[in-house]
Fold:
Amino acid sequence: MMPACMETSPVAQRDGRPAAGFNALSGNGVCFRPVVIQERRNALPPRAGALMPLTIKKILCRALPRAVGFALAVCLSVSFPTLAADQRWQSVDSIRQAAQAAAGVAGARAHLDDRIRMLACQSPLQARPRAAGQRATSRTVQVQCARPAWTLYVPVRADARQFVVVLDRSMGRGEVVTPADLRLERRPQSAGYAYITSVDAVAGKRLTRPAAQGTALTPAWVDDPLAVSRGQEVTVLAAAGGLKIRTRGEALSEGSLNDRIRVRNLSSGRVIEAVIRSAETVEVIF
Structure:
């Protein structure tokens, strides 16, 4: 009786046949049942890339409708605001117009940000300059609404220009201005300055201080020409109770017509004050 076959060791078998040098029966009557291990060639796991198209498709199919819906909702809310939302705010242009009308400045322009939001006023806007004595070309206007109650301060500036008299050359203090020294130039109106606008109003006057070329002249820059110079000999007139006195004197200071100067009486040496009446005469006022 043949002994039962015993598995003693695994024997490799290629394609179902024993490997080279293998005997099925040994001399001691023990048979060897080979454990066949099939060799799998190119048996690699499924490639990860093979699942990619399906995964991306699922993601896109689930997320894209939500993203598109959200973007559409945002676009609609930004591009098409409701009429009720527009009517909630006061027009920025109406606030500007109210401020410009109340400023009382020629060529006034209200500077107000277009993004400002004030509740729509249910009553006419009230506007007035914030304070008296502000600069002529720049001021702040207070714009108010009674219903609902709010107040806004709007800066307003003038862009108006005018022709003013300017020096055509640099000149020193005391020099007499002639028409050849002047020209008209168009300049913006400056705050609080009453510029001279006529050449005739300046010609023949003297400068009260040094001025550079291009200086726009105001009344403070010029004065009447000197009628009497310091050290000049003048006639001193005095009248009291029908009595008139005439004497000679020396001017101790300079001045224009109707200016009050100090004069020394050459007869007595006494220093008196007198008013210049002409280039050679001063009058003592009692």
Summary: The two ends are 174 Å apart (CA to CA). The CA atoms of residues 48 and 55 lie 11 Å apart. The longest strand covers residues 150-158. Residues 52-79 form the longest helix (28 residues).
